[in-house]
Amino acid sequence: MDHSDPPDAGTDDGSASDEHADPGEEPLPLASDEVNRRLADIEDRWRRAAADLDNTRKRAARELAWARDAERSRAASVFLPVVDGLQDAVAYAGSENAALAAGMESIREQAVAALERLGYPRIDAVGVPFDPRIHEVVSVVDWDDHPPQTVVAITRLGFGDPERLLRPAGAVVTAADE
Hints:
Blueprint: H1 32-96, H2 98-117, E1 122-123, E2 135-141, E3 151-156, E4 158-161, E5 164-167, E6 169-174
Parallel strand pairs: 2-6
Antiparallel strand pairs: 1-4, 3-6, 4-5
C-alpha cells in the first residue's frame, strides 16, 4: 500500500508549492526607498547611542574630577589647624628656646609644603594690592608710605588661589582713599 500523497496534491493551508506558483508572482523585494529609510533610522539610532555614551563618559569624568577636588579639599582642610597650632607654638617657643622654635618652624614648613603639593599654594605676600578673592581683612591701618588698599601684614596664612581657595589669608591693609 502506498501512503504517499499524489505528486500534484497541494498542502492543507491552500498555498501552492513553488513549482505550481504563477510565473508572474515573485516575492516582492523591499523597495529601495524602504531599505534606505530603515538604514537611515538604524544609523540615526547608532549615532544617538554613540553620542549618549560620549556624554556619559564626559559627565563621569567631570564628576570624578569634582569628587577628587572635594576630597583633596577635605584632606587639606585637616592640616589647617595643625599649621595654625605650629605657628602659635613657634611664636611661643621663640621667646623661650630658639633651637626648639627653629625645629618647630621646620615642621610647620613641611606642613605648608604638603598643602602646596595638594594644590593649595601659600598666600602670604605682603606689599601686594588687596584681593577680596584671596584675602580677608582683619585690620585696616593708615600708612601714608603705602598705596591705598595694600596688604601690609599677614596675620593668618591663606592657602589656594582665586579659582580654588582653601582659606583666605588674614590681611592687614592700608585704608582706601576717601
